[in-house]
Design a protein that fits this description.
GO terms for molecular function: DNA-binding transcription factor activity; sequence-specific DNA binding. The chain is about 65% helix and about 0% strand. With about 160 residues, the chain is an all-alpha fold. The chain folds into two domains: about 35 residues; about 100 residues, Homeodomain-like (Arc Repressor Mutant, subunit A), CATH 1.10.10.60. Helix 1 packs antiparallel against helix 2, helix 4 packs across helix 5 and helix 7 crosses helix 8.
């Protein structure tokens, strides 16, 4: 997943209008070259939520990905697996390569990105993730993505950041 600048966004929209077979030496070729250049320069967003191998843990992760909750605790998950919290932390990191807290946050951000793209309001997304106040969600989003959700929505809609 890449952070798409307003320039890259517009270039991609223009590139979608090109014919499948275009002249590489003309305007269309220059446009594609610029798209490729901007893609190389785009900052990657560290967004991934690897799934574990064990079926019980996969089931918990899948349930969480369908409806993330920022307040879901590792102790709750450990209890559902009949494990101690310490064993759960070790198992989770071993199978996903991530600490539970980091995985949970990534899952919440990925959910938020999708929900915002679908046109849901920031307040609605924040509340659906379990935040009591949109400001707390905005703070987490900014820390993870590097911009506020309002800027993300504006950028996604082709407006100024």
């Amino acid at each position: 997943m890449l952070q798409v600048s307003p320039l890259l966004h517009q270039l991609l929209l223009s590139a979608c209008q090109l014919p499948l077979l275009y002249h590489e030496d003309g305007h269309d070729g220059a446009l594609i070259e610029l798209v490729l250049h901007e893609l190389k320069a785009a900052s990657p967003l560290p967004m991934f939520t690897p799934l574990p191998q064990s079926a019980p843990l996969v089931a918990l992760c899948s349930d969480f990905l369908r409806q993330p909750d920022i307040h879901s605790t590792p102790e709750q998950w450990a209890a559902r697996l009949n494990k101690s919290a310490r064993t759960f932390h070790r198992l989770f990191r071993q199978q996903t390569g991530m600490a539970f807290r980091d995985w949970r946050q990534q899952a919440c951000v990925m959910y938020a990105l999708t929900a915002l793209r679908e046109g849901r309001t920031i307040t609605d997304v924040a509340l659906s993730l379990g935040y009591e106040h949109p400001a707390a969600f905005t703070s987490m989003f900014r820390k993870t993505i590097g911009q506020a959700p309002t800027a993300f929505v504006r950028q996604m809609n082709g407006g100024p950041v």
